[in-house]
Amino acid sequence: MKYALKRLAMLLATMLLVSLFTFIAFELISGDTASAMLGTEATPERLEALREELGLNRPLMVRYAEWLFGFFTGNLGVSTSYRQPVGDLIAPKALVTLYLSLMSFALIVVISIPLGLWSAGRAGGPLDGLRTAFNQLCMAVPPFFTGILLSWGFGIVLKWFVPGEFPDLSANFAGALHYLLFPAVALAIPRIAMTVRMFRSTIQAEMQKDYVRTAISRGNDRGEVLRRHVLKNAIAPIAAFLAQTLAEIVAGSIVVEQVFSIPGLGRILVASIANRDYPTVQAIVVILAFWVVLAGMLSDLVSQCIDPRLRLGGGA
Amino acid sequence: MKKKLLALLLLSGLLCAALSGCGGGSAGPAAEDGQTDGSTVPDAEPKVNEITVGIAQDLDDSLDPHITVAAGTKEVMFNVFEGLVKPTPEGDLIPAVAEKYELSEDQTAYTFTLREGVRFHNGEPVEMQDVIYSLNRCAGMKGEEPLIPALSAVKGIEASGSTVTITLDQPNTEFLSYLTLAILPEDYDQQDTAPVGTGPFKFVSRAAQDNIVLEKFADYWGEPAYLDKITFKIIENADSILMSLQSGAIDLCSHLTSTQVAQLGDDFNVEEGTMNLVQAMYLNNAEKPFDDVRVRQALCYAVDKQGIIDLAFDGYGSPIGSSMYPAFGKYFDDSLTNYYTRDIEKAKALLADAGYPDGFSMTITVPSNYQPHIDTAQVIVEQLKEIGVNAEIQLVEWGTWVEDVYNLRKFQSTVIGVDASNMTARALLERFTSDYDKNFINYNNAEYDALFQQAITTASDAEQTDFYKQMEANLTENAANVYIQDLVDLVAVRKGLTGVRFYPIYALDLSTVRYEA
Amino acid sequence: MKQKWNGFLKAGLLLTAFLAAWIVLGFFWTPFDPSAMATGPKLDGPSLQHWMGTDQFGRDIFSRVLQGAGTTSFIALCTVITGAVGGVAVGALTGYFGGLADEILMRLNDALTAFPSILLALVVISILGPGNKYNVIIALGLVFIPSFARISRTAFAALRDVNYVKSARLMGAGNARILLVHMLPNTMSVLLPAITIGFNNAVLAEASMSFLGIGVKPPDASLGYMLSEAQGMLLGAPWYAVSVGITIVLLVFSVGLIGEGLQRRDKGVS
């Protein structure tokens, strides 16, 4: 219980740190909100007026404190470019990205676990080398390249979906999911390969251990040992790996969203950075950070179940 | 393994298909055949009287037309707002919210008569107070900074009955063009996000980075729009634009590159207009070595405009020789276009004369989000190699470009397109007067400044035109910049659609677009 | 027990050597000047003269791919070195000493991991200046530090209490000596495969960044930039995207095989 609380505190600390980084980052990037908004029509007077209006003239720390206060009271501020509350602006995008990530994750889990088991069981077989090579090949394909090929092949040639026509999530849920399937596949392919590989090597490492060797040499059925002991012990690192994958998919989806013209968090993040729309960037960064930290926590928790030495603070 | 195999097969199949596609040079007959009986047919039937337009830039700006800065936003919202007058494709100004106007003898007072029965999109009639409000807001009549600086010349705005009189402190032949400013309802505070105007289309919704929806305004005073609904779909990725056109997700898209157009196939007509930009390699005239006119001239002799247009734009585009483009008609002086013809020897001689017999190194700063400028810069780099000038492209984010190049003037050279904020020669030429705050190339020429003063004070249109032409010649002769071209504007329109019109300003007028009967 | 060579290692090294030979050749000689325009018709398909066809300026794609592969490999190599050196330093210190420094550095590490890499990269690039290759290397290198730190921290923490380290400590060896001489070589079995994976991730990350428009830009044309450029011409000139895409895949694949081989060698699996 104490441990869980500690992790929770760390989660908060990390998010605070991340949001502070973002604020500082915005101070360091050349060009501020006002000059990004006015562009070539900027005059010193107009810039000054706009900065005043947006409150950009006050010290960094004051603005950060204000943002923090707003954040804890559920007010994410108003987008400087869209002039609309950040919450309203990004909520639908976050949902799209969430669905895309979850779908991709589901694909990874559903495909890679049986595939990994199967491949581990067959390790050392005649085709093992080829399988592994193919696995490496799948890992080598960038998701946006796959995405391009998929939208061309399935969109333009086969017409299984209409690239560029992402249906509104609330109006046509099934249609949206159908559309998301293709980017989800593009995202999933290299990840599936990675998970299968991870799965295989974890199980193999486990199989090398003395207790397994002993069990097998005693005449226990190989498959039985695999299922009853090896899997049980291998499940923890694999679960940790999957949790990490969950975090990485979200980052990967940014590029894939661009390829498939999906209105998700990635696109609005890139655009908001270019616009120096810091309330929006700040909110998205915190959401993404929350997601990553959460996944990291999951993975830590799982791995600490096996190796208590890694428990944080244990060395002190 | 089966699934992996399947995936492998699919992928390799795609690769093979992609490879085999190269023979035909197009997407292949399968794709095109499918198109005619595929998902696009419902769109082509007149019963669904709507289209989807692809735009590369999101409307990530305030939608209040008096505050909007982004060209992309103005281009779309052209369909929603109108001023007392509005531009025509020919470059004239015709009455819009006003029914007619008169100019006083001394050319300092404009009297507009409001048109009867004009309504805002929210159903309210346009009243005199709305017009006064809109004019006051832009001209800063209540002591604040005017939203349109040129309107600071307004001395007074007076209404009587259905007429409004605007008086100036001195005659200004270009004043009318500023009155295209949008007329907005006075008591409405959501222009930022849910704008209300008087144009042929009304604003319905905006989803950031996704789409903007406009609908036909039934109570429009003039010729009503043909289409019932337009969805602007934001597609920032150049490849996705092409994909979306091919798949039927969008029906119309402007500002395409010649490479994109070449890949379109038979489902589209391509309309050709101009971007109305002065694309040039702008030189920082205060920066070494460009403070020497001989060096600038050498660059002009080394750069081959037509070569750039042929190589990077498949021959589309009109070469220019000064800060003026052909759409401006009477102000455009075509004799300047070929003032410098490519001459490597002369360029080298000029460089040697200026003390650079072995050439020099320079950087060209280019905003990374404008592919045409990047392409142009790449060709320039190659061309400059021949006179021993080693140019290096520096790509920067748009925000950085604005800050460093445009505002702080920390640059050597930059390839960019400069547009006119309104349809006046002044909008293009005033920026190079020595004390103008947007003179980002630091051009400093006394003769030029004097000519400009004469141009804006004369009351004779012919004389003014002449002064402006002399200013253009001044820029060319002094090689202020390496002028290149007015970029082509290629618009893909799905077959069956017609009525795209080009304007000499940055606007995409959809009120005349319709399905062919 | 350890096998020095295995099929993956051999195949990977062979393929990498083959690619590397081309890349090195590309530094000295290419069929055409990679930036020379109009060397042939524009957007022309592969031919004997132009093995991978020509691009929209009539430049020879094969020459450009050679040059781009060189740039990409250089970036990926430097990135992975930056990330590995930085990450191992952090990981070794935190894993070995533990305590408050561990706590703080790992928190920072978490925050850095949680920070969207795109924003991080953009910040670095916008501070350092536009997207030339060195700035991309620094940006990506920073992004790569946390994962190396994490891996090496685990490895060093696990070694902290093994017998030979304990005995070295008892014999009075300094911390630096223990870390560098006794522990570092023993973490190599974890680090080397991580480096090969890191190299591949760097190639892919550079490509993604270029795709989003914040990576390497001309004149430093990398494979990633070329691929993003080629995507706009997929329908009319598919060979462009396909040749560049396949080059990236091959590069990543060959190094991936080496990584696989290394891992197998260390585990003693044939």
Overview of this protein structure:
The complex is a heterotrimer of chains A (316), B (517) and C (270). With 316 residues, chain A is mainly α. Chain A has helices at 2-28, 33-38, 44-54, 60-72, 86-121, 128-139, 143-157, 173-207, 210-217, 222-260, 265-275, 278-306. Chain B has 517 residues and is of the alpha+beta class. In chain B, 31% of the residues lie in helices and 22% in strands. Chain B has 16 helices and 21 strands. In chain B, the strands form five sheets. Chain B has a seven-stranded mixed β-sheet. Chain B has a six-stranded mixed β-sheet with strand order 14-18-13-17-15-16. In chain B, helix 9 (293-302) runs antiparallel to helix 11 and helix 15 packs antiparallel against helix 16 (461-477). Chain B starts with a helix and ends with a strand. Mean pLDDT of chain B is 85; it is low at 1-46. With 270 residues, chain C is mainly alpha-helical. Chain C is built from nine helices and no strands. Chain C starts with 6 loop residues before the first helix and ends with a helix. The relative contact order of chain C is 0.17. The model of chain C has no long low-confidence stretch (mean pLDDT 83). Chains in contact: A-B, A-C, B-C. At the A-B interface, helix 2, helix 3, helix 5, helix 6 and helix 7 of A face helix 1, helix 2, helix 7 and helix 13 of B.
Defining key terms:
heterotrimer, A: 316 residues, mainly alpha, MetI-like fold, 12 helices, 0% strand, B: 517 residues, alpha+beta, 6-stranded mixed sheet, 21 strands, 31% helix, globular, disordered N terminus
Topology:
The complex is a heterotrimer of chains A (316), B (517) and C (270).
Chain A: H1 2-28, H2 33-38, H3 44-54, H4 60-72, H5 86-121, H6 128-139, H7 143-157, H8 173-207, H9 210-217, H10 222-260, H11 265-275, H12 278-306
Chain B: H1 2-24, H2 29-37, H3 41-44, E1 50-55, H4 71-77, E2 85-87, E3 93-95, E4 98-103, E5 109-114, H5 128-139, E6 154-160, E7 163-168, H6 175-178, E8 201-207, E9 211-216, E10 229-234, H7 238-247, E11 252-256, H8 258-262, E12 268-274, E13 277-283, H9 293-302, H10 305-313, E14 318-319, H11 344-353, E15 361-367, H12 371-385, E16 390-396, H13 398-407, E17 413-419, H14 425-429, H15 446-457, H16 461-477, E18 481-486, E19 488-494, E20 497-498, E21 514-515
Parallel strand pairs in B: 1-10, 1-11, 15-16, 15-17
Antiparallel strand pairs in B: 2-3, 4-5, 5-7, 6-7, 8-9, 9-10, 11-19, 12-19, 13-17, 13-18, 14-18, 20-21
Chain C: H1 7-28, H2 61-97, H3 99-114, H4 117-128, H5 133-160, H6 163-170, H7 175-212, H8 223-231, H9 238-267
